[in-house]
Every structure is written in structure tokens, then in C-alpha cells.
């Protein structure tokens, strides 16, 4: 698979393994108590209780989680403006990209503050109420202008915020990295770094640097990102 077209699903694991995160076992329990030798009287007592009262046995419980269907549902909702309550107007052409404030605000403190500020400045709470097509659309959504991103990069970012999965490629990795930095999503930053590291090892740094040019005058994070790419290239070349 070409690394520039790789897909990084970040929330599709059904089991969380603490050892994967480098934690030791201190303060953690396996969920099972250590075996303890029972006296003969204890055994008899335990046996008699279970025979007399079958309902005293602990009920069997199975925990089941399916994240994929939830992700698919959220992604579908994002394609339906009427079901969303936030509208981002992105880039010079003010491309509308939709989201849900409950998800956005809980995933990022920066989004939370932007949404609160937009609600305070909403035209609905002020004077004008013109019945143009655009105004009626605006009145149904919290409107937030996003000027420093390419629309498709920001759309991919909003999808990640809602669904926890993202398609990273050499064209959007810089934009995603900048958004992850600005909106404080460390897991996406790590994914962007991992993708970039693998791409550089494959000799694909040029395409990343080319697409990064758009973000260099707009984001400090883009400049740091490009510097890291150059440093890593030098370290590989000796």
C-alpha cells in the first residue's frame, strides 16, 4: 500500500489494553482475586448455600461494544446539514462544513470556546432578520468562520473529531497537523507524525513539503512541522 494513501482508524479497537500505553500494572487489577485455600467447613458451607439457593450465584454478564456502526452513523449525520447545528465557513470561498456542537465542544476546549463566542454574537440575538436563503440557513446554525485552512483538509479534520478516524495522505497531513495543534487533539498529532515518518523513509517527503507551502504563512505549527521533516531527512542521510 502506498503510504500516502494510508488509512488510520483510531477508534475501531474494541479492547483497550493498558500495556499498549506503557503503563505498569501498579494500581491495576486483572479483575480476578487471588486463589485462597478454603477450609473443609467453608467448602461445606459454600456447597450448601449454592444447593439451597441457586439464585445466589453471580449472573453472567457479557460486555459488547461496536464502534464501527456508531462512526458510520455520525459520518452520515455530518452529510445532512439539517441534523447539524454548527456550520463552519471555510477558506476564501467560505465553503460550508457542518458539525454537531455537543461533539465538537466535548472533544476540544478550543471548539467549546468558539461555539460559546459564536452563540453570543449570533445575528439571531441581534437586530437583522432578512429572509434570504442564506440568512435562513445561518439562523438554523451556529456559524463559525475558519479562514486558515483548505476546505477539504478541514472537512477531514471535522470528520475525525466526530468519528475518531481519518484518512491521512501527503496532501492533507500538514493541514491536519496544524488543526490538531490548534484545537489540541494530541492523538491526531501523533498519527500525523507517524504517517510523515513512514513517508520520509519511503522517500515521499517532497510531496508533503509541496502541500505544506499553503500553511507556512498561516500557522506556526506548519513551520515547526517542516523543520522537523528537514531534520529527520538529514538524520537519515547521515
From TrEMBL:
Map out region (Disordered) in residue numbers. Answer: 32-61
Q: Which residues form the BTB domain?
A: 84-170
Which portions of the chain have biased composition (kind: Basic and acidic residues)? 40-61
For this protein, the record's Pfam families field holds: BTB
Q: Which InterPro entries match?
A: BTB-POZ/Galectin-3-binding, BTB/POZ_dom, SKP1/BTB/POZ_sf
**Origin: domain of life:** Eukaryota
Record-given protein name: Serine-enriched protein-like
Q: Which organism is it from?
A: Crassostrea virginica
**What is the phylogenetic placement of the source species in the record?**
Eukaryota, Metazoa, Spiralia, Lophotrochozoa, Mollusca
Amino acid at each position: 500500500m502506498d503510504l500516502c494513501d494510508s488509512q488510520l482508524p483510531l477508534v475501531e479497537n474494541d479492547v483497550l489494553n493498558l500495556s499498549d500505553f506503557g503503563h505498569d500494572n501498579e494500581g491495576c487489577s486483572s479483575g480476578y482475586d487471588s486463589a485462597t485455600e478454603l477450609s473443609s467447613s467453608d467448602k461445606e458451607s459454600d456447597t450448601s448455600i449454592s444447593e439451597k439457593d441457586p439464585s445466589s450465584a453471580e449472573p453472567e454478564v457479557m460486555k459488547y461494544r461496536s464502534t464501527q456502526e456508531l462512526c458510520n452513523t455520525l459520518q452520515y449525520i455530518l452529510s445532512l446539514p439539517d441534523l447539524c447545528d454548527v456550520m463552519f465557513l471555510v477558506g476564501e470561498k467560505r465553503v460550508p462544513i457542518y458539525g454537531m456542537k455537543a461533539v465538537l465542544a466535548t472533544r476540544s476546549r478550543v471548539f467549546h470556546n468558539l461555539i460559546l463566542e459564536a452563540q453570543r454574537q449570533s445575528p439571531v440575538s441581534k437586530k437583522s432578520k432578512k429572509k434570504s436563503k442564506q440568512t435562513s440557513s445561518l439562523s438554523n446554525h451556529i456559524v463559525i468562520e475558519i479562514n486558515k485552512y483548505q476546505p477539504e483538509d478541514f472537512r477531514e479534520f471535522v470528520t475525525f473529531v466526530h468519528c475518531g478516524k481519518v484518512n491521512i495522505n501527503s496532501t492533507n497531513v500538514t493541514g491536519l497537523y496544524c488543526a490538531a495543534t490548534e484545537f489540541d487533539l494530541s492523538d491526531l498529532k501523533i498519527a500525523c507524525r507517524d504517517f510523515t515518518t513512514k513517508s520520509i523513509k519511503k522517500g515521499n517527503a517532497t510531496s508533503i513539503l509541496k502541500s505544506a507551502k499553503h500553511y507556512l504563512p498561516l500557522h506556526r505549527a506548519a513551520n515547526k512541522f517542516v523543520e522537523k521533516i528537514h531534520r529527520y531527512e538529514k538524520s537519515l542521510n547521515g
